[in-house]
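User: I'm new to structure prediction. If I give you an amino acid sequence, what do you actually give back? Let's try with this one:
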Amino acid sequence: MWRLLGTVILFAILLLFIGFNLNNRCDVSFWFVELKQVPVYLTVFSAFMLGLLCSIPLAFSLGRKRKAKAAIPAPSPEGKKKKDKKKGGETGDTGDGSYGID
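Assistant: Good question. You get back a string of structure tokens that encode the predicted 3D arrangement of the chain. For your 102 residues, that looks like this:
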């Protein structure tokens, strides 16, 4: 429900922005080409879409890192306790993560 309400509010803001900027136009200049009298809302949305396209490789690389990290099994706490007992003597680790500090 909240997602639908947020979408409706977002579209209302977009429509207001477009409505107020229908007559506002600007020139967009690339290196060798100049586009004249381009509506402002098109330039804003184009910049937003280019930003989204630039973020796609970052999103995929973060997803791969998370999958690779999830594939490596975490060491079990029981294995750590067994190793501490084999060493013999006090290690200062109580095994519950408190390190003997109260």
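You can read the tokens as a compact description of the fold. Here is one thing that stands out. Residues 39 and 57 are 29 Å apart (CA to CA).
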